[in-house]
């Protein structure tokens, strides 16, 4: 692994051994969630005894600053449910003010969106991804464990009202649950500026038979889209591993996130930091690198950057799902999806 002389750290950019550049950080600010999505936290959030607290506002600011110093331009706030944090707006405001950070995005389950989206916009959040696993309130309740479909839909309308030009909607399509809604989702985005993103169900350490029963290959969806006249777009820098499709008759777009596809990792443009301060180089199969001890004072910034850079040089070329590595060790609520 290449390590970096400390005097050169100030110039180091986030480029790995395979020449991939990382300008995008997914920053989890809490593991806590008030939903119980059956593929993520089926028993709800369970706080672990004697676990460290989530990163504080100052720790979050320092980690964001270090990534910005190394060329990161976009930070996504995620979780758990990030908007559950009482200091959520303060976090967003701090991060949007960091020099070099041009976009601060949010991934949310949308439960507070109708009420708070104006404040999110005012705090500088530039784009929103909201999860909607079903357009049928009963199925939404069945999947998420919570009866908030109407509130989430109102939140999306409200986001347009307060000036967001486009909203991204995430949905995990699963066999025998919501997969029959594929066409309904397409119709929904026909006249709405929504990028509908279908995320292929990923197997986590906490599910096995669930995955076998409900996993639906994204390839099946890609074939359907192509057969119906949707065209695959050239990836833009911000798409990352999503494959984006457009259709002349539709205002909305479709994004497919297919982690089990070959080459998924070639366009990887993201790093993750967990709510307890670990750097994750990949969603799959690694334990994370501790950063928290270097988030305690501003004087540690160069050491922090050196640790991040050195760790990045150990990032693998691709995940090993195809060679029998079963996938993510934990549920995605702990590293933000
Ligand atoms: N609570 C927020 C939300 O649901 O949007 C943010 C965190 S959540 C972990 C981020 C994304 O990960 C969501 O869109 C969710 O659908 C997705 N996700 C969680 N577990 C997943 C799994 N096992 N497979 C695929 N996507 C998953
Ligand atoms: Fe919560 Fe998001 Fe996980 Fe659903 S997917 S349980 S909303 S963290």
From TrEMBL:
Binding locations of GTP: 26, 76, 107, 168, 270-272
MF-aspect GO terms: 4 iron, 4 sulfur cluster binding; cyclic pyranopterin monophosphate synthase activity; GTP 3',8'-cyclase activity; GTP binding; metal ion binding; S-adenosyl-L-methionine binding
Ranges for domain Radical SAM core: 17-242
UniProt cofactor note: Binds 2 [4Fe-4S] clusters. Binds 1 [4Fe-4S] cluster coordinated with 3 cysteines and an exchangeable S-adenosyl-L-methionine and 1 [4Fe-4S] cluster coordinated with 3 cysteines and the GTP-derived substrate.
Entry's EC annotation: 4.1.99.22
Pfam families in UniProt: Mob_synth_C, Radical_SAM
Protein's job: Catalyzes the cyclization of GTP to (8S)-3',8-cyclo-7,8-dihydroguanosine 5'-triphosphate.
This protein's name: GTP 3',8-cyclase
Record gene name: moaA
């Amino acid at each position: 692994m290449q390590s970096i002389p400390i005097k050169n750290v100030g110039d180091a950019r986030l480029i790995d051994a395979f020449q991939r550049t990382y300008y995008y950080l997914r920053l989890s600010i809490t593991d806590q969630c008030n939903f119980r999505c059956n593929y993520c936290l089926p028993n709800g959030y369970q706080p672990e005894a004697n676990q460290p607290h989530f990163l504080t506002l100052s720790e979050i600011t320092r980690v964001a600053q270090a990534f910005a110093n190394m060329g990161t331009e976009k930070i996504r706030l995620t979780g758990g449910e990030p908007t559950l944090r009482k200091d959520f707006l303060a976090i967003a405001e701090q991060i949007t003010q960091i020099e070099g950070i041009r976009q601060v995005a949010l991934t949310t389950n949308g439960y507070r969106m109708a009420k708070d989206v104006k404040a999110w916009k005012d705090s500088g959040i530039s784009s929103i991804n909201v999860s909607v696993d079903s357009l049928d309130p009963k199925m939404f309740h069945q999947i998420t464990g919570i009866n908030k479909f109407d509130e989430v839909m109102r939140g999306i309308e409200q986001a347009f009202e307060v000036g967001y030009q486009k909203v991204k909607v995430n949905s995990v399509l699963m066999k025998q649950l919501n997969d029959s809604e594929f066409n309904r989702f397409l119709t929904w985005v026909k006249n709405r500026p929504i990028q509908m993103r279908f995320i292929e169900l990923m197997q986590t350490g906490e599910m096995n038979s669930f995955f076998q029963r409900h996993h639906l290959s994204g390839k099946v969806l890609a074939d359907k889209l192509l057969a119906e006249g949707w065209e695959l777009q050239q990836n833009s820098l911000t798409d990352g591993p999503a494959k984006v499709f457009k259709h002349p008759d539709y205002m909305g777009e479709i994004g497919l996130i297919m982690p089990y596809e070959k080459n998924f990792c070639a366009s990887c443009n993201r790093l993750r930091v967990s709510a307890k301060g670990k750097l994750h180089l990949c969603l799959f199969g690694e334990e994370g690198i501790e950063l928290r001890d270097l988030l305690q004072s501003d004087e540690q910034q160069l050491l922090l950057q050196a640790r991040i850079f050195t760790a990045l040089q150990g990032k693998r070329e691709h995940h090993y799902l195809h060679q029998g590595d079963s996938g993510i060790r934990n549920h995605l609520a702990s590293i933000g999806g």
